[in-house]
């Protein structure tokens, strides 16, 4: 039976990199005889323009009934003062689908090791995953915005912490079995509950180790010796910031995919970066983040390991040929890079 994939290209480079990922996906569908029904829906700024809402009802309905969702990126200066910003649509979608576990893998392809701003010996072999809590914390607490005072409430329930810590351990079990829980337990109440809960959940995983790190020092260690990490688990805002920081290790946000999972229901796959208004409509965005997000979808939603690997290997081979987009100092356009991956997939 055919699998329903909802594509939400969104705004800015979102549409350009979605085109790339779907070109690659269509090739894989032919090669591996996969039956995907891919339908596009308006979302983010495009949702506001087309339907007056960043998360139109029909888009949400389609996502709820999908087998998986691919999202490009949303946002841009055009909608910065909209009554409901594109970002609200994104947060609303994550919340509505219960996408609490955001998985952001960090590794450095051989072809770009020398391009990292960090020392080569610290970068070679980096392989960790940021497990970011995605539907709680300060993003979703009560907000007050007055003329002279404003506040954002950060709350976490024990249940919300338990399920994300469990997720991190489950992932660690398939890897090097080490979980680093990142918090600010020297100051924040939510972090104190986080740390205590992490200790308790760790008892369920005696084959794994748990360490705690304060977020400020974790931000430093991530640059100083990134090989120290296997699985990092952290709350929503810290995970947002640390994962963008982590993108400096391989050298560009444009290579970074992610997967977001709920307890049951469709998962969503999206780059960790945004709509990059500074480079939109120039055909220069690095499409790898989106192509690799599609590969994550094949692996994690549809257990199509070999199809996913084929795409990842083709991207590696293209970069090994020195075909790089401008974010990595190369000259390839978005479409050049995509065509090169396509050629690799076709064995040309
Ligand atoms: P951004 O992630 O869009 O861009 C940061 C920098 O990285 C820019 O210089 C950009 O050119 C570069 N970059 C990002 N992706 C790239 C790619 N694929 N190839 C090459 N270079 C790339 O962050 P920003 O500029 O702070 O935010 C722009 C908009 O995106 C804002 O409206 C923000 O809210 C939104 N945003 C959306 C998402 C999302 O859709 N999930 C994520 C982050 C930011
Ligand atoms: C991300 C983005 C979003 C976030 C914004 C656009 C709401 O930065 O996906 O990392 O903060 O979660
Ligand atoms: Mn972010």
Automatic annotation (TrEMBL):
For this protein, the parts annotated as crossing the membrane are none
Listed GO CC annotations: cytosol
Top-rank taxon of the source lineage equals: Bacteria
Presence of keyword Manganese = yes
The EC number of this protein is 1.1.1.85
Q: Where does NAD(+) bind?
A: 274-286
List required co-factors: Mn(2+); Mg(2+)
> Any idea which UniProt keywords this protein has?
Amino-acid biosynthesis, Branched-chain amino acid biosynthesis, Cytoplasm, Leucine biosynthesis, Magnesium, Manganese, Metal-binding, NAD, Oxidoreductase
Which GO molecular function annotation, any one, does this entry have? NAD binding
| Pfam hit, one | Iso_dh
Q: Which residues bind Mg(2+)?
A: 216, 240, 244
Question: Can you say where in the cell this protein is located?
Answer: Cytoplasm
The protein's annotated catalytic reaction(s) are: (2R,3S)-3-isopropylmalate + NAD(+) = 4-methyl-2-oxopentanoate + CO2 + NADH
Report if keyword Cytoplasm is assigned: yes
Pathway info: Amino-acid biosynthesis; L-leucine biosynthesis; L-leucine from 3-methyl-2-oxobutanoate: step 3/4
**Quaternary structure, from the entry:** Homodimer.
The record's section on HAMAP family has: LeuB_type1
Matches recorded under NCBIfam families:
leuB (TIGR00169)
Q: Which family does it belong to?
A: Belongs to the isocitrate and isopropylmalate dehydrogenases family. LeuB type 1 subfamily.
Role: Catalyzes the oxidation of 3-carboxy-2-hydroxy-4-methylpentanoate (3-isopropylmalate) to 3-carboxy-4-methyl-2-oxopentanoate. The product decarboxylates to 4-methyl-2 oxopentanoate.
This protein is called what?
A: 3-isopropylmalate dehydrogenase
Gene coding for it: leuB
